[in-house]
Amino acid sequence: MGKMLNVSSSPHFRHGDTTSGIMLDVIIALLPAAIFGCVSFGLYSAVIVCVCVVSAVLFEFLWNIILKKPQSVGDLSAIVTGLLLGMNLPPKTPLWIAAIGSLAAIIVVKQMFGGIGFNFVNPAIAARIILLVSFPTFLSGAKNYCQPFSCDAVTSATPLEAIKAGGVDPSTFDLKDLFFGNMSGAIGEVSAFLLLIGGLYLIIRGVIKPIIPLAFIGTTALFTYLFMGFDFKVTLVYVLSGGLILGAVFMATDYVTSPTTNLGKLIFGIGCGAITFVIRKFGSLPEGVSYSIILMNILVPHIDKLTAKKPFGFKEVKNNE
After folding, report:
1. How many helices (H) and strands (E) does the chain have?
2. Fewer CB within 10 Å, N or C, the chain?
3. Can you give the pTM of this predicted structure?
4. pLDDT tens digit string along 192-232?
């Protein structure tokens, strides 16, 4: 007799990747930009990042103990959330605000919705928005930012804040400074070069696909070029400034809160880029990356539904049949 055919439920193929392995790759990809920011903006910036990471892990640990749930800190997702939050904060953020941000990210956004895999928006982005709305005095304005290697003495508006205020022509910025990180900004967003290196690492490792980052950054760049003077240098200034690359590469690509299909990823990235441009151009805020990602996160279930492929042999049955 021939071999017996075993029938079982899906999944029929299993991948060797684990949550902790994927998160470790993300941490490795983030570290160069995070370390550069901490070195550039001084020891206090490193303390901010450490507070975000340690408090994120602690809050997840305590939540699991209080609710008598299996410990999940070993999957490293809390470390990634804390690291992303810290990298998105200004170099002069009070430490107690950083801890509140981790509390919001881990408890409110992640655990109250069921833990990893169940949150409908990116925890780090949601926490950053909560902090921006709750403590705008501590998280916006030139006094909370500074020039690299002079953070203790010199405060400085970010490039997007300076442009938004109307006092600085975008074409006057040095593209080399923007690309390599010699500019004021959030702790982990200033070095476009190191963020892109990290993104390339994740693509090579197969952790993310380049669809969302390319669509996100490309759409923002295209709209900026078309509606802000057809100036290539100005376009590059807007692409390299703010949190666009950090958000597009490391937060918009979050497995849980981004679409599963390639077409869905393309739509998601285009939507993020379009909303980012609209906020930057017409909104009162200088930056729109966080808001664009969280708005598109909410639409992900609908995007997945619209772009899902029909199974082979599937036939829709009408009610009257």
Report:
1. 14, 0
2. N
3. 0.91
4. 999 999 999 999 999 999 999 999 999 999 999 999 989 99
- The domain segmentation of the chain, as residue ranges, is 19-306
Phi and psi torsions of 168, nearest 5°:
-130, 130
How many other CB atoms sit within 10 Å of the CB of residue 129? Answer: 17
Residue 13 tokens, joined: 């193929």
pLDDT in tens, 49-69: 999 999 999 999 999 999 999
What string of DSSP letters covers 252-291?
A: TT-TTTS-SSHHHHHHHHHHHHHHHHHHHHHSSSS--HHH
CATH architecture of the domain with range 19-306: Orthogonal Bundle (1.10)
Across-strand partners of 155?
146
Q: How far apart are CA 309 and CA 285, in angstroms?
A: 38
How far CA 297 is from CA of 79, 176, 259, 268, 292, in Å, comes to 21, 33, 9, 8, 9
